[in-house]
């Protein structure tokens, strides 16, 4: 058996600690599958004194992750620090500059600087692997970059954030409001004290930007991802969705159309019969559509120490075996810069909930505005009657352009009889 | 870009023809992802005159696949002939002996001769890849062998035969009997004229033998797979399953327990809430359970020209990129021969349907026999009353040993009041 692969690990939080624990727990099995032992020999973290529950005896300690990344005794650098910039980016760039393979779980860094970092990796010939950056333990990156590499990918759609999926699952299963479900998620450790990164869709958007780059062979372009989170999803809309045969999920969808590539994160209504509908709680799922393979769905745990470590160590085994792939599946010079299609170009169906004063003529006014913008109604639902008071009215449309829907909505929202900002949800037949 | 990878393709049926079509349709994309063009330059098939819908002009024609496999102008040999022995095996062995990489979709050959063929590949250093042999277009082999390589796998469970899944789906959705659903599957081309290979579970067992070898790091052992097909599943049992909150599926299950490894194909009842329950029609799905990653589920099309070609070309891209892995994930010398655990050692719950004469004392007799064998009842269901005539009685048990259940069943089947052979289905909480 070849000499051990010496790993320098920066960051000893959930991800780094989990990686260290996994490499030790399954050392013999990993050595067999990697063709050689994989051993963490040096680490770096912010606070040397903190007890992390994994013994650090025998490991060389670096105060500076950049020094760790370029140390001659380190064969591979694992970045588990986090953050798009700062020490994470500095150490990754230093490792690549030194021609050293890098494994990272850092979706923010890859989404924002991925194109430049991949170009650097290509220039120095150093492998750059990031299975753990998307969908945790699900081998989604490998499936897309290698397993489905023969296909022209037409669409990627996924539940990419476990925090949001947990909150939406709780809201539906227990008929709770968003704030209450969020508090419960925080209590259980599924949401951060400051949850905005997750619930505003930014984390999912980072992941989608990476998937879209791989799927469509284009440089990572986080800036072109349309992002909406789940703060405005209400228990009432979840209940109406159920009545109409839908579930509400926060989905990331990237599509290739004749006009270019669109990538967007927002709450959607999908049919209960969709294979993504039963994916509940903290689970993630990604569906790829390829021209020869059809639809392939992958589901599993999208976060946590074990699943994330599983992905990082898979990358290390690839490196140990010498299995090498360009970071985004092909040489950077071959990546195409197809235009990004804005959300206003979306063609699809919509769910619209209005709080209106229950009086004659209101529906007529709304219908007329929709007609003026060529938006065709599929269904209308008004539950209960309270003459002169506010009642919810739910409309679903046939397929129309988002720009038309938005223009109609602006006028509808301005009607006297509409007494709260309208709620709009996109319906996807995934 | 490097020189093209020259492919010799033996077999021009659904699989071979699809591979040729895919390599041509997505040639530019595949060249970008593979780092070089991948081109079929030579083919072999039984009947040169037959029109296959793909132009063969410019390709060298070989009457003998063994000659094709060893031709100096061929860089990689793709075997799409089929059959465990005969020309398929001869040509694969010839290619490997010549040190030439082999890609095959041949699950029968791998299940029966996989250990020997993999050892030969290892001895000559020639890559042997077979993504298309299991679950069609789903990158299940790559996920297991590479993506989840850091994990000790505890269980593999899958819907591995689209023909059976289609028949069971039709039986449930349209309340049809087996023979009728089979005829419909044959009419649609989802089942062969001689369907026994699929419906008796042999095809699924081939795939499970391959998955079990990869999952548990042991030589392929088709002989130790317990195989039952779906001929005996009745519309009545499917209806009762629905009433009890279950679906009936033909599953392949391979598990590692303290006693060794068990692998079995048989119809099972799984809860409707199982992630495998909504996998319907010709779709396949595989669930892997790993000690760090938890459960990962993959779903997609398990057969057909496009999905199978997608898997074969993914293997060719791996070869073009020089991504090399031992056929079963680790060196043959490291594979362990854990004992195979027979089905009689299964511990689980059971569903039992009896056709009994409706008269006092029958249930008491049955209950007494179950008690004698320490089988504990969970539920009992008798629909309708027809004193003196035959009625179905459905029992479900708590967890017990298969051997005990089988012994009890033999005695129950021999009761005068039990007027047809009992139906037994295993319940799995997957």
Most residues in contact: chain pair = A-B, 57 and 58 residues
As a whole number of angstroms, the C-alpha radius of gyration of chain A is: 24 Å
Main sheet characteristics of chain A: 11 strands, mixed
Determine and state the CATH class of the largest domain in chain A. Answer: Alpha Beta
The CATH homologous superfamily name of the largest domain in chain A equals Dihydrodipicolinate Reductase, domain 2
Total strand segments of chain A: 17
- What's the CATH architecture of the largest domain in chain A? 2-Layer Sandwich
Global mean pLDDT of chain A: 95
Could you name the CATH topology of the largest domain in chain A? Answer: Dihydrodipicolinate Reductase, domain 2
The percent range for helix content of chain A is 25-40%
Distance between the termini of chain A: 48 Å
Question: Please, could you describe this protein's structure?
Answer:
- 2 copies of one chain form a homodimer.
- In chain A, strand 11 and strand 12 (294-301) form a beta hairpin.
- Chain A has 430 residues and is of the alpha/beta class.
- The two termini of chain A are 48 Å apart.
- In chain A, 55% of the residues are buried.
- The first copy, chain A, is built from 14 helices and 17 strands.
- Chain A is elongated, with a radius of gyration of 24 Å.
- Chain A has helices at residues 14-25, 27-34, 65-69, 86-97, 107-124, 140-147, 162-173, 178-187, 196-199, 202-216, 235-243, 305-321, 362-372, 402-413, and strands at 5-10, 38-44, 60-62, 76-79, 102-104, 128-129, 153-159, 226-227, 246-257, 260-271, 283-290, 294-301, 347-357, 377-382, 390-397, 400-401, 423-427.
- At the A-B interface, helix 1, helix 2, helix 6, strand 12 and helix 12 of A face helix 1, helix 2, helix 6, strand 12 and helix 12 of B.
- Strand 12 (294-301) of chain A pairs antiparallel with strand 12 (294-301) of chain B.
- Chains A, B: This is Homoserine dehydrogenase.
- Chains A, B: Belongs to the homoserine dehydrogenase family.
- Chains A, B: One of its GO terms (molecular function) is NADP binding.
């Amino acid at each position: 058996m070849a000499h051990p692969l010496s790993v320098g690990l920066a960051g000893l939080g959930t991800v780094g600690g989990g990686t260290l624990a996994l490499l030790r727990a399954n050392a013999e099995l990993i050595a067999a599958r990697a063709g050689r032992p994989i051993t963490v020999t040096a680490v770096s973290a912010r606070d040397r004194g903190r007890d992390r529950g994994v013994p650090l005896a025998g490991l060389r300690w670096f105060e500076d992750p950049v020094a760790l990344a370029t140390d001659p005794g380190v064969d591979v650098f694992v970045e588990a620090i986090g953050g798009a910039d700062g020490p994470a980016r500095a150490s990754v760039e230093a490792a690549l500059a030194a021609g050293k393979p890098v494994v990272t779980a850092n979706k923010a860094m890859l989404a924002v600087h991925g194109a430049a970092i991949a170009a650097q990796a290509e220039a120095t010939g150093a492998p750059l692997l990031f299975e753990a950056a998307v969908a945790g333990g699900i081998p989604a990156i490998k499936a897309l970059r290698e397993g489905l590499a023969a296909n022209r990918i037409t669409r990627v759609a996924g539940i990419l954030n476990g925090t949001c999926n947990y909150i939406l699952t709780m809201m539906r299963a227990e008929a709770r409001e968003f704030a209450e479900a969020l508090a419960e998620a925080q209590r259980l450790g599924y949401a951060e004290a400051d949850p905005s990164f997750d619930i505003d869709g930014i984390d999912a958007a980072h992941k989608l930007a990476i998937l879209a780059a791989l799927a469509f062979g284009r440089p990572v372009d986080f800036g072109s991802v349309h992002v909406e989170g789940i703060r405005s999803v209400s228990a009432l809309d979840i209940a109406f969705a159920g009545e109409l045969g839908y579930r509400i999920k926060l989905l990331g969808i990237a599509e290739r159309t004749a006009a270019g590539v669109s990538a967007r994160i927002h709450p959607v209504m999908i049919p209960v019969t969709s294979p993504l509908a039963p994916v509940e709680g903290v689970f993630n799922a990604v569906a790829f559509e390829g021209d020869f393979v059809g639809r392939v769905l992958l589901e599993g745990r999208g976060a946590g120490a074990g699943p994330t470590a599983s992905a990082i160590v898979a990358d290390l085994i690839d490196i140990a075996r010498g299995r090498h792939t360009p970071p985004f599946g092909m040489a950077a010079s071959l990546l195409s810069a197809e235009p990004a299609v804005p959300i206003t170009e979306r063609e699809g169906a919509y769910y619209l909930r209005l709080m209106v004063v229950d009086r004659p003529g209101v529906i007529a006014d709304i219908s007329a505005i929709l007609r003026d913008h060529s938006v065709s109604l599929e269904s209308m639902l008004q539950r209960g009657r309270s003459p002169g008071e506010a009642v919810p009215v739910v409309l679903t449309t046939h397929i129309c352009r988002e720009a038309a829907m938005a223009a109609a909505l602006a006028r509808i929202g301005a009607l006297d009889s509409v007494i709260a900002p309208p709620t709009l949800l996109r319906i996807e037949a995934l």
